[in-house]
Queue: 2 jobs
Job 1
Amino acid sequence: MEKVLISTRDLSKIYHMGEVSVEALRDATLDIYEGEFVVILGPSGSGKSTLLNIIGGMDTPTHGKVFFRGQELGDLDDNGLTRYRRENIGFIFQFYNLLPNLTARENVELVTDMSSDPLDVMEVLDKVGLKERADHFPSQLSGGEQQRVAVARAVAKNPEVLLCDEPTGALDNITGRVVLKVLKEINRSLGKTVLVITHNAAIAEMANRVLYLSNGRIASIRTIENPIDPERIEW
Amino acid sequence: MKKLMLMTLRDIKSNKGQYIAIIMVVVVGITMYNAISMSFYNLNSATENYYEEYRLPHLFVRLNNAPESVVGIIGRTDGVSSAQGRLVLDVPMEIPGYEGRVHARIVSVPRSNDGALNKLHLEEGRYVSGDHRDGALVEKLFMEFHRLDIGSSIYPIINGKRVELKVSGKAISPEYIYAVPSAQDMMPDNERFTILYLEHSFVQQLTGYDGLVNEVVLQLEDAGKAKEVKKKLEDRLKHNGLISVTERKDEVSYAMMDTELNALQSMGFAYPAVFLLIGSIVIYMLLIRLVDNQRRQIGVLMALGFTKGAILFHYIGYALLVGFVGSVLGSLAGVRLAEVLTRYYLTFFNIPILQVKTYADVVVLGILMSVVFCGVAGFNAAKRVLRILPAEAMRPVAPIEGKKWWGERILPFLAGIRISWRLTFRNMWRNKKRTVFTVVSIAMTVGLMISIMTMLDSMDYLFDKAFGDALSYDYKVAFTGSVHRDVVKDLGEFREVTYAEPMAEYPVRLMNGWRKENTMVTGLVQGSRVYKLFDMKGNRVEVPREGILLTEGLAKSLGVKRGDNITIEALNKPGIERRIAVKGIVEQYLGGSAFMEVGALDAVLGEGSTINAALVNLRYNGEEIAGDIEGMPYVQSVKEPDDMVKQYNEYMGLIYAYIGVIVVLSCIMGFAIIYNTTTISIMERRRELASLRIMGFTNNQVAELIFNENTAVSAMGLIIGMPLGVFMAAQILKLMPEDMISLPLVIFPKTYVLAAATVALFVILAQLANMRRISRMDLVEVMKSRE
């Protein structure tokens, strides 16, 4: 947990909506270490997603810098950012965003086909507990299962970081817990850094560190010495 | 309601490209409809008015020189309202500064033009009366070709004497809208044929035919009784040297104009209908997508209390708007194009009183058709609004059911192809309806293009065939009338003539029951060395000793096959009718469409051992000898087969213009369709595509998915469109004026290649035009919104 993987310096993001400017993020400075499990908490509109999107190379800050292993993202052009996302980032969304036309396995293969150092597709599906359902289409899977396919898809290309935007937001607590367990397992056994955005404070207890965002600022950072097992999370 | 309208306009504004593309398809269809229909009406009313105002005769009586008293006899016949005698004779003519010989037809006209039948329209100069009695009125297009002016000298050779005449005016006659000497000549030849209108008594004086006429033209009290009066005249004049009585509909110029108008009329509906049909398919697809995308909004509107009817109408409104705007623009363009096309016609037909009018009923009907077509498409797409329940609509749509398509189940290897292609096929399968519509639209576009380009192929083939194998004579010598077969021997006397063979051509009517066709029968010698016939398999065929050979087109329109009997009636000699056996079917190329042995033809229609033409080959230095032959007393014209091509191409200029217009318009349409399909498949899957981008797919990789799909759909459209094009071409060929030429249906591989290349180009262009949609996709925005 010593090596810094991602660092942000004085990140600000201002959205101009007509005559109104909204400062979604203000002076966010932060280091994230390799293999860390970080939960970012905050009410809606606090800047969580903006921070995540900027870290993921999907959005650019108005001020400030983001470094990934010392490489400043602002120096990358569109192709560079695409490559960065392809090689280093695995995204998981609230609404899964699987391709409805592809089976679970094919959704994962879609990503492994283009990455340089992918994991074995079936092994990853096994890890998320969906080996048996590999040839099902998204419409034949439950929400939790779809989200686990999405996790598998994000993991299979063997990225450094998983960025999860409300991964349990659309799930009930039982299926949600299964997804969280899978994320934790991937964090532990594969050593992937995981960032989870949520407004569900209960989830924070499974993290190594918790960031509180409020009004676009990082209000506090809390380190948890003994993260609890996701099984024991209640909400 | 006003707000809904505002929404419509804003939606359209934010998807400009797509709406412009659809509107273009409608514009194209309506432009064509207006242009072709209006040029039809313009021409039709112009010719009708012209015939009426300038008193085109209903019947033409041709006689061996008869005393002028015959005019009185005819004039007093029941049903005849007026009759006018005249002398008509074909003579060679010299034009200063022009090397070739010209074939002039002298037509005598009464002293006064007012009230005359076949009244002349003078573009310039003076009528041939009074001081100008010894002047000549010359046909307009000929004067323009040779740059003759009022006062220029021309030198017709009458009875072997070179006579100098001064041009006193530039004229046109309703009898020669389409100025050809006879049905034998397919195309007007403004270089070598013209009509001279000379005062009647002056012609009598020049020719020495004092007190004689050889034609009487007449108008009837009731045009519907032409047949009866014709019969009556035939009986009455039997002993007055009658040659023939012809109705105006059988006169060459009238018949050609009629065919032309018919073709125009049927084209005026067929093509625009195809365009509108495609346009409505595209609108249908677009609206389906729109309604699906705006489900949530529809739910909100319903929750707010808008009635389903109002919402339904809101969506149909898009289609109506497209139909209306497209048809209004199309009408504007169509009116302009109609003017251009109509004026273009004027270079082929001599019509003085052409009024280029805008026909309000055509415009209104066009707009109506367009609005109805679009409205029906719009309704069919928008009616799915009715199935939406507000509460459901506001929830996100259930994920689309993913499925393997049957192809993957049947053909296991398809499951092993690259994922991006697997996705492509499954997407096509997922949107079956849309895929089918797109394929059909592209197929129709390809069909249009191929059918039209086939015309060019067929013509090329015809010329190649004609000059490659079939027609190898250097010149065709036409005699002024029937001459004895031995005249061919005279031609052989010329040292430079290496070969000469007799030939005859007579205008006839072929009949099988109620089916009738007017055509030329060509008489050839057996074993002809310079005019070869081939059957449909390409084997050489000889003219039979007895019986007749027909081209395929002619046999079809008569409904006969080998072994059937048909009736042949001479058009140049009334009363001669024979039954004759069809001995075979031959390929068509330039020239005739019915063939007999020259002796057998003479036995049926001739005067005993007579012919009226000869085919010759020359040693070299052909031009000069041809001139000499043309100078022989009984020779009417000497023509190279190339002249036919030249004339044909000139006439085809008109067809080329249409071909050009249709090709350009189909291209616009083809592009519009493919552009729309591309746009829709991007818009519909923005979320999917955005996820791919976020996962690290490059813009190009995402574009490839769309491109694959378009390629696959277009390829299918091509595969179906090609045979469709062949089928459509066959239909168009049926519309072509049959008497003139029946084109074989020939399609060169290059046409298919060209069609495929065009479609490929459109796919690429549509893709490029849409690349921005992919590269400018705001990933964050797309992922945030849950449609």
Job 2
Amino acid sequence: MTRNWLTIRLYHFPLSFQLDRRVPWLLVALAIAALAVLVVSVGYGEYPISPIDVIRTILGWQTDNSDYGFVINTLRLPRIVAAFLVGMGLAIAGTILQGLTRNPLAAPEIVGVEAGAGLAAVSLIVLFPSIPTLFLPIAAFTGALIAALLVYWLSWNGGSSPIRLILVGVGIGAIASALTSLMITFGNIYDVSQALVWLAGSVYGRTWEHIQAFLPWLLIFVPLSFLSARELNTLNLGDDVARGLGSRVEWQRVFLLIASVALAGASVATAGTIGFVGLISPHLARQLVGTSHEGLLPTAALVGGLIVALADLLGRSLFAPIEIPCGVITAAVGAPYFLYLLYRDRNQ
Amino acid sequence: MNSNLSLEPALSARKLSLAYDKTLIVNHLNLAISAGKITALVGPNGCGKSTLLKGLARLLKPQSGTVYLDGVAISKRCPQGVAKYSTKEIAKRLGMLPQSPVAPEGLTVRELVAQGRYPHQSWLQQWSREDEQFTEQALAITGIAELGDRPLDSLSGGQRQRAWIAMALAQNTEILLLDEPTTFLDLAHQIEVLDLLYDLNQTQGRTIVMVLHDLNQACRYADELIVMRQGHLYAQGTPNLVMTETMVAEVFGIESQIVPDPMTGTPMCVPVSRKARASIGRK
């Protein structure tokens, strides 16, 4: 129909959709960039491994050094895969929240969802240290959901003004953080040190076990959110227009909120509170592919994954051998960006 | 779309009461809107005309009473045993454009207009040949085809309003409800939008119901006026019948003279103000 859109339509089967022409190319480019970061990141460390050997080892081919298998597959790869997946989860959660609330400042870390998830997860670590990793995402999801519902309930006043939502979100986030600190003072020293590292937002020491606990959440909620892209487009036009178009607005909103909170909660359970990824990724993706959620959601997901993977690589290399948690890196980049968005919003 | 000239009302309300929170805005209102006609809802600020339009478009759940579309109930709250449309089925027959809607930053005109196809789409069938055809047609009818790839926020007020109307057109409904489609537009753009709606009614036989502020424009463009006062229906009928000095005095609280519009012959309201009286006195 136009040079800007790609229409896919099957002849004998009722399947059709359209995509911004830029989307497929960008997704391929982002995926290649992500793989490149993965290879470099896996190779980097106190024990450097050449990219060729990294690729050979990951693919299961023979290498000259028998240690590579252990270093890569057991120590480094799960950590970097976790970083990428967590970035994806947070970015999708942020994109959904921004579309849902029609608020460019909404993101899981800003509206208190991450803090809520953090509180629930720390409580679990401190109170029941022996509980299996598998339960951590469930606790984080519950905490995130409670925080989200509280913010929604307190700030929703027949529609949510951007600033009101942020203020209530920051308030709930502060309360959750305070309770988290309280939890930490009561915990025993070993559990607490573990919780602290995790709270800063780090993929340090992540194993395949953590990814196993995280993966089901991604496998369920990522496809569901992609399928809801059209609903997000409609909600983005405002409640009245969406209702007029026949969207079941209340139902859609609850469903999308649960998807967003589930992704944010499970991400926090895996890598702690990594800030500002859910805020920045959708904005960057929108610059790349426009506002249509069909293309925006997958693009934001890859951008988010790339950001966290890069932040982890930077955190390990900037002041090596001292390691900075990737959450600190994303916050250092993200906080000024948030201020910029606030400033721009004010001048509109 | 075939013009529907039957006498069956397109849209009707029975004992309809609408409220925001607990404040009753529209009270026990009975109403029938003729198919294939242009109906203008007029009344002073706060009389409940916008609320009524929202109620008719099922955007507001009635406190009591029911709205019927082709004789089928469409309100969420309706008597038991009465046939009912789903919200998507309603959206295929009835389009609603709220007052000054806001689009997300960066949305292009074509993207917005394509949104009008939402009720005709499903999870798998998201962009059928028909969707494309109606979107292009809506862009052409409203004269904004060449603006398709421009972001909405880069357009003038009149162009933007035409894009929103195009979205409602792409929805391809027999009935179109519009809440003050001319607000915030300068006079030239007001006439442009009203002429467009008139053409749609004439050439495609669409039923149009709109809230208008300007009484003279309402008289010029509408086949029927619905006059509201304090949540009640004050009068309904052709402009010639309804537009009287008594009506203007009782509903709007001002003295006026009704004269024929020099262009169309439809009634025109000329308000008598203190200033006007002073000028007459001086003569």
